[in-house]
Fold:
Amino acid sequence: MPNKPVFTDFPFSIDERGRSAETTEDEHVRDLIYQVLFTAPGERVNRPEFGCGLKQLVFAPASDALAAATEKLIHGSLIRWLDPVVAVEAVTVTVDDAEISVRVGYTRRDTGEKRQDVFRRPIP
Structure:
């Protein structure tokens, strides 16, 4: 029987055994999406193009055009970086006074399972 894959949890932490914390495959895919959403281009030294720049858009003036452009930007970034892992079906962005929320509908390519997750981040 083949070994079950092991996924390191994000953000990196140490578990109660003193080892790198592990996560499930579903949570690993969710972590990958989170990293694309909330990593700014230029933030990673060895992959400076990675991310979608969502954090900097929070400070732009709110409008329907900006919301539509942001959803397209996120959709394109997810396809660019995670296309082998997920098929992105829908992206919805909501910004309120203290938080940005991104709802992503996707299908995992390995299992065919459809999922819809919400990713939230406080606005500094």
Q: What stands out?
A: The chain has one domain: 7-122. The two ends are 48 Å apart (CA to CA). The chain has a mean pLDDT of 87.
